[in-house]
């Protein structure tokens, strides 16, 4: 009695074979290929909030000391760079080492200018808090209507 099952033939379509080859290569041969040298500087996660008087930035910088943070501001642009280095220890043989030095980098263009001379910054439990006061011209102004017109 003949079998109802038939043997499947692999596809000879070059497009599908290329897709499978890329999938295998990205998954097993070079699993971190999505994180190229350009993205080796990891994305710095942050929150940007706004109130009437200022912009507030809360950036996650785990294990980074204040002296390893570089924050620059110009016009409407804010740049945060954080460096974390892992010390090499003499006489120690690593069995697993996943924490090499890291660098995070982020540049933000804010909706309006802020007062760079009065920015407040504090670092607490791996969170960088920045308060960027708005310039007087960037704050909302209420326009009153003359009732006698």
Shape: elongated
Average pLDDT taken over every residue: 77
Q: List how many beta strands DSSP finds.
A: 8
Low-confidence stretches: 29-41
Query: What level of helicity do the residues show?
Result: 10-25%
The main pleated sheet reads as: 4 strands, mixed
Radius of gyration: 26 Å
CATH topology of the domain at 41-87 and 100-138: Immunoglobulin-like
The helix tally amounts to: 2
Structural class: alpha+beta
Give the C-level CATH assignment of the domain at 41-87 and 100-138. Answer: Mainly Beta
Descriptors for this entry?
32% strand, alpha+beta, 8 strands, 2 helices, 149 residues, Immunoglobulin-like, four-stranded antiparallel β-sheet, 13% helix, four-stranded mixed β-sheet
């Amino acid at each position: 009695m003949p079998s109802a099952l038939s043997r499947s033939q692999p596809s000879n379509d070059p497009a599908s074979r290329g897709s499978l080859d890329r999938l295998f290569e990205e998954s097993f041969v070079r699993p971190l290929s999505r994180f190229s040298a350009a993205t080796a500087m990891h994305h710095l996660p942050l929150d940007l909030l706004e109130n009437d008087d200022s912009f507030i930035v809360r950036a996650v910088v785990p294990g980074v000391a204040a002296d390893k943070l570089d924050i620059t501001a110009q016009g409407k642009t804010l740049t945060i760079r954080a460096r974390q280095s892992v010390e090499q220890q003499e006489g120690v043989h690593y069995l697993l080492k996943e924490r090499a030095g890291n660098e995070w980098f982020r540049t933000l263009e804010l909706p309006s200018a802020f007062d760079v001379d009065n920015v407040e910054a504090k670092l607490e439990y791996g969170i960088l808090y920045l308060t960027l006061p708005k310039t007087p011209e960037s704050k909302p102004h209420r326009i009153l209507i003359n009732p006698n017109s």
